[in-house]
Protein: Polyamine-transporting ATPase
Amino acid sequence: MQRDTLVSIEGVIKRFGSFTAVRKMDFEIRKGEFLAIMGSSGCGKTTTLRMLAGLEAPTEGVIRLSGKPINHLPTWQRDTPMVWQSLALFPFLNVRENVEFALKMRGVGKAERRRRAEQWLDRMQILEFSERNIAQLSGGQRQRVALARSLVVEPEILLLDEPLSALDAALKVRMQSVLKNLQRETGITFVYVTHSQSEAFSMADRVVIMSRGVIEQIGTPQEIYGAPRTRFVADFLGSSNIFTGKVLAASDSGVQLETADGPIVLKGARLAQPPRQGATATLTVLDTKTHLSMTPPPDATNVLPVRVIGEEFVGATATIYLETPRGQEIRVQKGHEDLVGLPLDIGETLYAHWAPTDSHLVAEA
Ligand SMILES: Nc1ncnc2c1ncn2[C@@H]1O[C@H](COP(=O)(O)OP(=O)(O)OP(=O)(O)O)[C@@H](O)[C@H]1O
Structure:
């Protein structure tokens, strides 16, 4: 256990009847971090959060909070305060009363309740709406009330399950920075469940990526983006081109792969477990590290003839979708200035290429 570990999840399995929702999960949550749990629908994110909250007990394994097992301990019996952020505000209470509610339940006196509620409403920039009914608030304002209500009790851990999913795109981005700043300023540990990569990667210090009840990777957004551990992660993030083939040669510093589109090479790596010659392996390259040219570059490694099949422009960047003669899809992401002079109409033929040092080996399973 690391020195700054607040929660440790050790060999946790959760079954519902014969269905296993979480399989053998091991990870730690550090004190004061913003941890996002991300994955596609049904992969076990909410179940994991519910086990942390004490709303479900693990079928096997141990969850420790500040070193003490809490498998069957409801939140109110724990020494370390943990709060589940709920968006379900009480419609019969006004904004301030909603925020005061948890303090009232804890027996905090009237004046003190009001002072602390107003302090948080001010911090969330909604003090002016204190006396309003919940029905008179916008989606973003309700979010802020819900946050103030969770934080007024000064938890050490805040559990959030897709808190921004109902908001429109612009408000989502605004609330992301509100949440991130709040977490930084308060130092409260946030465990944040989302299926959105942009939310997880923009806010979290570390991200847990799950698939079908299994953790595929844990790391900082930069680590995961730059070096997806498994093929699933590379696929899920959608920011890499992925090539699977037979290993022609491999050492601890590189791999040569034979794919349907020709050889793909990785060089300059430090591989703990190089694949065996003749085995199937997968190399990836980030779409930002994949380049396009009208003629093949002279030192011809990792060069593929490609046909343009589509393009998408978002702000200052363009994503070009291409296809090799064997139907392998390739994505290239560039700033507009990098694409000047290239024929990008659908059907045009170009060459996609990248440096062997930009290839990356992922685990098959
Ligand atoms: N009480 C339950 N009884 C039976 N199956 C359950 C129960 N709760 C969850 N599951 C199943 O466990 C799996 C994981 O569910 P969970 O809600 O944790 O997924 P999730 O990753 O949060 O998905 P989503 O993003 O759709 O909310 C799902 O297949 C779900 O149907």
Remarks:
- The longest strand covers residues 5-16.
- Residues 16, 19, 21, 39, 41-47, 195 surround adenosine-5'-triphosphate (CB under 6 Å).
- The chain has a mean pLDDT of 92.
